[in-house]
Amino acid sequence: MSFMSSTDNSANGAQRLCDALLESGVDTCFANPGTSEMHFVGALDARPRMRCILGLAEGVVTGAADGYGRMADRPAATLLHLGPGLANGLSNLHNARRARTPLVNVVGEHATDHLALDPPLASDIDSLAAPMSNWVRRAVPGGDVGHDAAEAVAAARDTPGIATLVLPADVAWSPAPGGPLPAAAPPAADAPAGDRLAAAARAIAAGPGTLLLLGGRALRAAPALLAQRLAAATGAGVLAETFNARIERGTGRAPIAKLPYPVALSTEVLPRYERIVLIGAERPVAFFAYPGKPGLLYPEGCEIVPLVDPGSEALPALEALAERLALGDVPAAAPAPEPPPDDAPLTPDIAAGLVARHLPEDAVVVDESVTSGRAFFAESMAGPRHDYLQLTGGSIGIGLPLSAGAAVACPGRRVVTLQADGSAMYSLQALWTQARERLDVTTVIFSNRSYAILKGEMANVGLENYGDAAARMMSLDDPALDWCALARGHGVEAARAATAGQLGDLLRQSFRQGGPFLIEACLG
Q1: Domain Thiamine pyrophosphate enzyme N-terminal TPP-binding: where (predicted)?
Q2: What's this model's pTM, rounded to 2 decimal places?
């Protein structure tokens, strides 16, 4: 085994941990610390190479680390305060786990002797972390916390996924053993297994009855283009999973549609296929169970052909297929429809289409618009090149923090957030982080003053006739949220648009200036 250079042998545990993170390639920490983490905060203060970014709620911290990892392709660290702080961040860690984002959690813990007294904030941190983590370890007095940190980074990077390191306060403040750290292993080659490759080649060659279902890293530009060309040559279909961590799309890239979210639509699409080749994707299942509707979205008897496991590199397998099969031309994406007149009142489709039309080159789009922004995906297919990030695990409140993390990872690129009003309230504090860090984020709030998706879900479960009590559970208009006031209260410039012309003007204005800008799109 090779080793990195050793760190300062006189360091305390917190300093040793910080040095180990830096030597392992982690130089960004999203934090919401408390008393037990003060020594780590002190270590960060003395190490300017580590950029430390404060979030005012733990869901902002974990969501921002997710956005950073998706765009940087390497982990950021989080710093969370004890079990309750971790618990507050779990919903966006759930989304990060589903996105297979590399991420290292550092969770403070009571000093070892004090923990035995069962103080008020004591909790079972290891059990809280386990469901959302691929790797969990507790640093121990006398152990090498630097070695623990290096292994946490390796676990997060190589899986990829979430690694959680629990840091007792006495480990942080006590002298730490020094010595060399384990060096990062070279990335393993993701050569496809021969039997998988042969089965996939047979399935694709069979033509129109085969679907290539892409997910994960298969939706980066190069592998997606190869998959589209294989499909074009053979007549096979190609789709992306419904919810994806990151898709590279726009002019010159593969115009790949997504499997529809509604069960009624997806079960219209998939029955035409006899074989589904999974390339970085999971088998397609319904997001929820509905009375009288299937859980598996593909028909009985459809052959599932796994080629690339979720989270693995897809390009080697697709290049190997390209050596065996013919490649066709990539079809052109449909152009966006004509723009609406400037005085047209905003509808969800008009608002989403205008964002697609005005998108700056090389933008990063974060989509948590849920129902209102559905038109964006199709209308931006032939637009400027951009990366498209989605809610992956269904736990709402990811959009604003995901945008913050993506902007930290990609300075110089504009982040454009399509954000539903209801889900934005889950992590509103991310606006403050965007303002404090002067992040180039344009947030478009689709202000329909309701949980619109729940209205559709009521119909999906067969409850189409309901009264005022149920309706109030889906309404946000009594009182109405004032998004411009909320944004300004967090230090973000904001304006309101009610027509197509107003929204277009505000989008252009936001892209010309630096820093965050919020637009409340008032939907009729």
Answers
A1: 12-115
A2: 0.94
